[in-house]
Design goal:
389 residues, mainly beta, 16-stranded antiparallel β-barrel, two-stranded antiparallel sheet, 1 helix, 21 strands, 1% helix
């Protein structure tokens, strides 16, 4: 009856457990929640060895340099940019017309500039604003100090509107459907250019839960229309993209829990976070023609978390992403230099010192391979301390 919104996204935001309940809250005379302000001060320190990912917060395997300049095989990195604040507001709490608003901000911009993480409204099953895609399953994210998380994770925030509805005797089933701002990134061929996108991306899912919601399995799908212009024929071309995904969590035994996801599709690279913005939704078609074609891609991760006690737990995660771009000539990025596949490994231990303070240590390994056979790899060991308020 508290009326809190955003709790699921806040609790498992980007794979790291952060507080879902604000420490500072305003309640009405009837004891109902109206407004809360919370956040986290998080500091990280790490050391990279290999082909260094030059970002202390985001261990992005697609950003691993291939054939880097000599002399840069190690780097010490320290950051407080993962710190965050959030505002949680509820109007007309515990009524049929309850309206929730949630805003969260991190400091991942240049020189610690504030960066919007989420800003959305909830009303009668409708979510509208800037939030994670309905094609995402944020609750299935494994815990990591790394703010990026598994390379195969479909964690894309953008503008959207969607509707969700639980059903079943115990509300164990749930469905959702929405429309979202198109996220498109192409590698253009000679004689082609990007144009405005005409049709929103359309995601949907169905989910079954058990064990009081601790276990669930979600099947998701997304349909996309990707537009570009053929400058030779002076007409717009529409390529259809699609994707399917399974994700969820399963309590195995005792304190052991599994998190998992597998995604496959064509023209959905922007929704796989290691490929997002990399120009692999559409690439030049084979042959010397002014045409683009969608790229097949798949990704998967599996993670095991073991709780030694309510305050100490560890996890291990493996993730892989693979693309299938046919060989082409020309293009802004040569075919040989395109992303072919990547691997991501994370192992960590966390200790909740008390209700406010958490520490942890983590090892990360990443590898990127291109179509020409070139590779890069990086190792990172890092530690963190976080204070929640």
């Amino acid at each position: 009856g508290s009326g809190l919104v955003g709790s699921e996204m806040c609790i498992r935001d980007r794979g790291y457990n952060v507080p879902g309940l604000p420490r500072f809250a305003i309640f009405g005379k009837e004891g109902k929640f109206y407004l809360g302000i919370g956040g986290q001060i998080k500091g990280t320190v790490g050391y990279d060895l290999g082909d260094v990912v030059d970002n202390p917060n985001l261990f992005v395997t697609s950003a691993i340099p291939v054939n880097p300049a000599p002399g840069n095989g190690g780097k010490f990195q320290i950051s407080g940019q993962q710190s965050s604040v959030f505002l949680n507001m509820v109007a007309l709490p515990s009524t049929a017309n309850q309206i929730g608003a949630y805003v969260s901000i991190t400091f991942l911009g240049n020189n610690y500039a504030p960066s919007l993480s989420q800003a959305y409204l909830k009303y009668r099953g409708i979510t509208a604003g800037y939030a994670y895609s309905l094609f995402s399953d944020m609750a299935a994210a494994p815990p990591t100090i790394d703010y990026e998380g598994p390379c195969a994770f479909t964690a894309l925030p953008h503008a959207l509107v969607y509707y969700e509805h639980p059903f079943g005797r115990h509300k164990e089933w749930k469905v959702g459907v929405g429309i979202e701002q198109t996220a498109a990134s192409y590698t253009l061929a000679s004689g082609t250019e990007m144009v405005n996108q005409r049709v929103p991306d359309i995601p949907a899912y169905i989910q079954y839960s058990w064990a009081g919601g601790d276990g669930w399995l979600r099947f998701s799908g997304i349909l996309r229309n990707l537009y570009y212009r053929d400058l030779v024929s002076n007409r717009n071309i529409d390529k259809v993209g699609w994707g399917i995904k399974a994700s969820g969590s399963t309590p195995v035994a005792g304190g052991l829990t599994a998190y998992y996801q597998a995604v496959f599709g064509k023209g959905i690279a922007s929704y796989i976070q290691d490929l997002s913005g990399g120009g692999m939704d559409l690439v030049p078609a084979a042959g010397n023609v002014p045409a683009l074609e969608s790229v097949k891609a798949w990704g998967a991760y599996g993670s095991l978390q073991y709780d030694f006690s309510p305050s100490v737990y560890c996890s291990a995660t493996y993730s892989h992403v693979h693309t299938y771009a046919k060989e082409y000539s020309g293009g802004a990025t040569p075919w040989g230099g395109q992303y072919r596949y990547a691997d991501y490994v994370a192992a960590n231990v966390f200790w909740n010192v008390n209700k406010l303070v958490q520490t942890g240590i983590e090892y990360l390994y990443g590898q990127r391979a291109n179509y020409d056979g070139s590779r890069g790899h990086d190792n990172r060991i890092q530690a963190m301390i976080a204070v929640n308020f």
